[in-house]
Amino acid sequence: xxxxxALPPELRDWIAHAARPWSPRSCLRLWRRALAExxxxxxARARLDRAEAAMLARDSGLA
Length: 63
Description:
The protein has 4 helices and no strands. The protein is globular and about 35 Å long. 75% of the residues lie in helices and 0% in strands. The chain has one domain (2-60). The chain has helices spanning 2-5, 9-16, 24-38, 41-60. It is mainly alpha-helical.
């Protein structure tokens, strides 16, 4: 729980509403990369949404 509590508020909110379980460590890694490449939290969050959608599609056999 300590790792989750240490996440940025925007990322904690995203994880709380995610469709699948995410580890704080892996999510933080993706978040940092997305922020560095996208430049803002809105686009970084959209990138996490796309990553999650791709994982859900793969898990369901649609990808």
